[in-house]
From TrEMBL:
Organism: Natrialba asiatica (strain ATCC 700177 / DSM 12278 / JCM 9576 / FERM P-10747 / NBRC 102637 / 172P1)
Pfam families: DUF420
Domain of life of the organism encoding this protein: Archaea
InterPro entries per UniProt: DUF420
Record-linked PANTHER family: DUF420 DOMAIN-CONTAINING PROTEIN, HYPOTHETICAL MEMBRANE SPANNING PROTEIN
Transmembrane feature ranges: 12-30, 50-71, 83-100, 120-145, 166-188
Protein's name according to its UniProt entry: DUF420 domain-containing protein
Length: 189
């Protein structure tokens, strides 16, 4: 995939536009600005299944990000590219399902555990998870657009590797914390 899919001089602009649009959609759904009538009415079993599917997507994304990271360290560029594109697809799928459920049920699910656990464990972990996910969005767009706008040999002259390492680290932490949030809300309590 050495073809230029994105004009090189537009990477930063496209990153900004995609980030603003993506975050506007996320915050609109999370803030209750998207009416329930905007999404097809799901069956109860579908709504109940989404958190379990999302934790599987998160665990799979952790694996694919790790594969991609290890592949590039070995110089296996094609494996790296496939793993990271797969990771991005898993992230988009996760986010789509999460936002669909959020809009369909009219807001976030309540935490079923004790108030102390909610305040001192669950909420801080959730906040860090969400913060890292939000920070990752422009970083992921940027490294993806860099990769799509240049031949592989030219990526070494960009910030792709430096920002990609940072983004992958934050992404791994965010996905891992998301699994902890799931365990607290659906397994432990």
């Amino acid at each position: 995939m050495d073809t230029e899919f994105v004009p090189r001089e537009r990477v930063r602009l496209l990153t900004a536009v995609l980030s603003v649009v993506s975050l506007a959609v996320v915050f609109s759904a999370a803030g209750g600005r998207v009416p329930q009538s905007a999404v097809p009415a799901p069956s109860a079993w579908v709504l109940d299944l989404i958190p379990h599917v999302n934790v599987a997507l998160s665990a799979t994304a952790i694996v694919t990000i790790t594969i991609g990271w290890r592949a590039i360290r070995r110089g296996a560029v094609v494996t790296h590219r496939r793993a990271m594109l797969g990771s991005f697809a898993l992230f988009v799928t996760f986010l789509g399902l999460y936002l669909y459920r959020l809009v369909a049920i009219g807001g976030p699910a309540s935490f079923p555990g004790p108030e102390r656990v909610y305040l001192y464990v669950y909420l801080p972990i959730l906040a860090i998870h969400i913060f890292l996910a939000v920070v990752c969005i422009p970083l992921l767009y940027y490294v993806l657009l860099l990769a799509l706008s240049r031949p592989i040999v030219a990526l070494r002259r960009t910030a792709h590797a430096r920002i990609g390492r940072f983004a992958a680290t934050l992404w791994l932490i965010s996905f891992s914390l998301g699994i902890v949030v799931y365990l607290l809300g659906y397994v432990i309590y």
